[in-house]
Amino acid sequence: MTVVAVVGGQWGDEGKGKIVDLLAERADVVARCQGGNNAGHTVVNPLGEFKLNLIPSGVFDPRRISIMGNGMVINPQVLLAEIDNLTSHGVDVNGLRISDRAHVVMPYHVLLDQLEEEARGARSIGTTRRGIGPAYADKVARIGIRMGDLLDEETFSEKLATVLDQKNHILKQLYCASPLSYDDLKSEHMRYARRLAVHITETTSIMHQAVADGKHVLLEGAQGTLLGVDFGTYPYVTSSSPTAGGACEGVGLGPTCLDQAMGVFKAYTTRVGKGPFPTELANELGDHIRERGSEYGTTTGRPRRCGWFDAVVVRHATQVNGLTSLAVTKLDVLDGFKELKLCTGYRHGGGLYKEMPADLEVLTDCVPVYQRMKGWTASTTGATTYKQLPVEAKRYLTRIEDLAQCRIDMISTGSKRAETIVLRNPLDCSRRRPGRR
Predict the structure, then answer these.
(1) What span, in angstroms and rounded, lies between the C-alpha atoms of 332 and 411?
(2) Catalytic residue numbers, as ranges
(3) Cα 238 from Cα 227, distance rounded (Å)
(4) Where are the beta strands (DSSP E) in 9-57?
(5) Distance of alpha carbon 375 from the chain centroid
(6) Which CATH number fits domain 2-87+203-428: 3.40.50.300, 3.90.170.10, 3.40.50.150, 3.40.50.720?
(7) pTM greater than 0.90 (yes/no)
(8) Is the CB of residue 265 less than 8 Å from the CB of residue 9?
(9) CB-based contact 279:368 (threshold 8 Å)
(10) Which regions of the chain carry the CATH code 3.90.170.10?
(11) What band does 47 get if pLDDT is binned at 50, 70 and 90?
């Protein structure tokens, strides 16, 4: 039995979907822990290319149980569209289970998210405007509607009537927007409930039974550590905790159940939306990386900001997640570069920062300290063994290990599942063994 959390180590979009899809071949249960349809995983397999916003990447094997955990916020309309797309491509979703404790993203959440961002003007956070933040805010304010509430019409009706009065008051008085119809929202969500009822259940017991039975369990994180509400670049963050600790909370497992924590990092760095990005390349080189790496958001299609690999970020992510290994993706995007740079620290106000500062001003105005490394001309695309890599690529990866103080166990060299170098599968180890390869 092994319980492994796979989390993003940067600002999201690191290629977790491919890594989880690959590891899921050995897993019995794959569970997503947090976030909503503000996240996106792209999976390429024999059935085609799929952009998943809500459903765990393990759904492609009907022998597996795929769980949408209690830590998620779920838009039923988006979920049903995703289910319909998968089934139209021959994917069996009978193994999908949705926690009755997960919260519902309601239409007023989406509307308020859009209105709030517009009201911020130049100070907007850069949310996806999908209602995720307002849904989490209602969860914490104890006025949220949960997926299990959809199964009881009376309970749902009472909760909706109470909260909608409040939301409509805000819409009318604060934003001069039209109120939403109670009858329309109720009938709409009762239709959703009829279709989703077969999937909604108590999932914590499923997780614990899998652990008790010695099953392989894979916890799939969304977004990335630097978008976490506690340890990210606040306030330019998401509204949940996309860390290994958050993964446990998001599926109902205690931290002692977790055996391994793998952090996924690109061989460079990207970020979508606003917020500080110390190693950003706002020039032709950054544009080149974007086009070569197809760096456009899975969920929104927004162009990703691109920059050099940031080891300060990696050390931070390694520490707050307790990472036992790293997966490095998109190594092939760096093929042909004569020189590469690794950020080892930040300079600001006469000081040198080796660890991630919380101060937004420091992150915004700092000057990265770079180590220059020789690039490689040989192609790494499709490499499946470490021996196939150019010596310069091996040195680059070794330096990342040195700076992170954590070993690399997987290297992605292309978008397809097979285009991966697996040095060690975390599902093969039942005890935490951090360290160097």
Answers:
(1) 10
(2) 13, 41
(3) 5
(4) 29-32, 41-45, 48-52
(5) 29
(6) 3.90.170.10
(7) yes
(8) yes
(9) yes
(10) 2-87+203-428
(11) confident
Residue in the block written with tokens 């039974």: 209
Q: Tell me the pLDDT tens digit for each residue of 187-206.
A: 999 999 999 999 999 999 99
Dihedral sign computed on CA atoms, order 332, 337, 343, 347: negative
The two three-digit tokens of residue 360, written as one number: 């937004």
d(CA 382, CA 20): 18
Tell me the average pLDDT across 250-276.
95
What are the tens digits of pLDDT across the range 345-379? Answer: 999 999 999 999 999 999 999 999 999 999 999 99
Would you say 82 and 54 are in contact if contact means Cβ atoms under 8 Å apart?
yes
Residues 6 or more apart in contact with residue 379 via CB below 8 angstroms? 332, 335
Q: Is 70 helix (H, G, I), strand (E, B) or coil?
A: coil
Q: Which residues pair with 2 in a beta bridge?
A: 216
Read out DSSP for 361-418? HHHHH-EEEEEEEE---S--TT--SGGGS-HHHHHHHHHHHHHHTS-EEEEE-SSSTT
Tokens 């949940």: give the residue.
240
Query: Of 305, 247, 317, which is closest to residue 279 (Cα–Cα)?
Result: 305
Beta strands in 183-252 (DSSP E): 200-201, 216-220
- 200: how many CB neighbours lie within 10 A of its CB? 22
Structural fold of domain 103-196: Adenylosuccinate Synthetase, subunit A; domain 2 (1.10.300)
- CATH 1.10.300.10 intervals, the chain: 103-196
What dihedral do alpha carbons 54, 55, 58, 64 form, nearest 10°?
150
For residue 425, the one-letter residue type is N
